[in-house]
């Protein structure tokens, strides 16, 4: 199974999805997108490092970065399914659009599976966490502990 | 994996989800809910019969009816995941609520997995199909062929 | 052009749509649905009478009741387009579903055209108006004057 | 300030809103609607009793039942504001419609104030709690403890 | 009738709306907006050329570019109605806002008419098509054939 | 009570919320955010001046600009509640996310209170008003009179 994102930075909402997805398969690949339509706050090397700090305790999770279309990456990695999180209606519409587009691009029947975010993380997004952190707010409990340490160390 | 619903009657949208889900697991159990909060158009025996006509070509699909909570049924059948379809924003909000409630009731980590309905079936619901059929409209292509035959035979 | 509904009762929101639609075509047929999935508050004869009181000032509007599918009625009346109003997101999803279903049923290319309700009527629905009226609230300005008189006369 | 509802039964989501609202004013009136458009699961006497069990610890909360329009009740009680909870988009659209209608009915400037439900209660509704309870599911933590006792005692 | 957009590039979703709109009127003007709030991927000359390639088979469609407010352009061209497409809830809210604003700006009763996108094109947007194309994905079937040729020729 | 925003520029929708909020408390502080995630059209000095022109008639409204997190500003000013406006579903989801985040950051129980925008202003936003004004459209009635004069004077 594959879970992909920009993880800019990884939040406890992402981690919750990774842990739940990892229980559903033998191997979960977590891919960090290098090329983003909007510019990233953290370079891909930092985003990958923070991801690895967050999932160090999970034995069947493999991490890497990738470029190009998610659909091509999923074909290269030969996965059966790509997992995505849903938090709110805004997410839903965007994800619906992407799932239909990817269903066309996959061709070989790769499925997009959705998990609902836990209520406790329904309001957590990388961009909001970043904005609060940049303005000096406390984001403890919103990102994994080692990730928060890393964010502070490179501030 | 478990897929449950009232299937009143089963539509091509349901069948699309069953076929896609069956490719993702060894055994897909499809459960027909006997007790409905709103009254059903077809008795459970007819709903189960139509479901079976629709999935006759699928080797790893098992069908049955059940009573009580979906969460209890899922625990009894010892499944890892329950699959649900998402068509539109209205579905999303209801399913989000149910997924959170079931996450509490499952306790043992059964996951709710969501698949997006194919665009071609995004507007198809059992209640709309039934209403059109009752008023004499043509629902060919919206329900599986053998199901349409059955619906006509018991009209 | 055709505009159909239950008009139970007709509101100023409906009238606004009728007036705007009538400016866009030579003849606007307004059809009152006799058979409703949910039971109506007013019998069809009263609903038609209230509609006629409301549109008496519009020269190119024809009113009648009909039974069966809207799609069949539109074909019988040989219209090119059916017009519908949109107030809010809830309306949108339901109307999207119906428009796709009707596109199938029309076959001959009858189009569904949507007009957005004016902001002043965005919160007005027949059911809410009825509920407020039944509980003794003031609905002046929400239904046409002669309609309000009629509602009071048959209370 | 006034908070009204059917409380059929009161949930921990309602209680959270009552506690937060009570901190914002000198006196919070909580009104149980007697007349419901849809039939209630519990009679109004039971609904009021469960509400009182739930708010016994709140000194500045007054409870009673009422009939008729919320707008008329708010005028009778001479409140400045009516408070409502928002959980999800479905709530939002309905509440938007009601707030606009009530703004017309209040005339004297009574405001509708909205509080967002806490994430932990975003999926909790009276009807879902009731359905789960009726089917034998565990609703501990979703309704106040004494309310659950009461629900069991009159089952 | 007038249909306007940035067409950056024109998709099969746009073309479907143009064909359906052209059947509803004597002359359909399709206007390409020169000034965009966000920067365009293709210059206006290319966008206009691609549009013309796409509608070459439609006798009653006229194409041109325009600057300034859509409302002013619609008044200049003396149209009775402006047609817009609706795909999803996100579209709906934005279009509702624009329709209300334009109703103020038109003054002379120009109407905004909405058509629902066909289910097959519900997930197709210029920006998503562009992104997929730029990353090397296959967009055949999402844009008209001659448009795809043109996009490849100027890549 | 505190009401904060970028007011870029202040609209009649904002003013309606300020007037309604000011009736609910002894002192309403209106804060103009200096630091914006997206760049502002007007410098903060102009935005504050326009706000002051708009609220000159309100005795219990105090205006100022602020930097940093809204949550920190609310704590500094020692308010019990922050008021926000809701126009549409898009607003709702964003505001829900922010309200949950701020509930964490406030710690001391500051509440976010929401008021629904009046239907007449449901389509009015600073960005849309600005865009129309920049393209030469008439925005009279959408911003307070003195604000429109000011906008013209610094064009």
Describe the 3D structure:
Six copies of one chain form a homohexamer. By secondary structure, chain A is α/β, with parallel strands linked by helices. In chain A, 43% of the residues lie in helices and 18% in strands. Chain A has six helices and five strands. Chain A has a five-stranded parallel sheet with strand order 3-2-1-4-5, sandwiched between helices. In chain A, β1, α1 and β2 form a beta-alpha-beta unit. At the A-B interface, α4 and β5 of A face α4 and β5 of B.
Provide a quick synopsis of the model.
The structure is a homohexamer of 155-residue chains. In chain A, 43% of the residues lie in helices and 18% in strands.
For the largest sheet of chain A, list the strands in their spatial order. 3-2-1-4-5
| Assembly state | homohexamer
Helix fraction bin of chain A: 40-55%
Query: Poorly predicted ranges of chain A (pLDDT <50, ≥5 residues)?
Result: none
What is the straight-line distance between the termini of chain A?
34 Å
CATH class of chain A: Alpha Beta
Computed over alpha carbons, the radius of gyration of chain A is 15 Å
**Tell me, what's the shape of chain A?**
globular
CATH superfamily of chain A: HUPs
- Under the CATH scheme, the architecture of chain A is 3-Layer(aba) Sandwich
Number of helices of chain A: 6
CATH topology of chain A: Rossmann fold
Biggest contact: A-B, 23 and 23 residues
Main sheet makeup of chain A: 5 strands, parallel
Count of the domains of chain A? 1
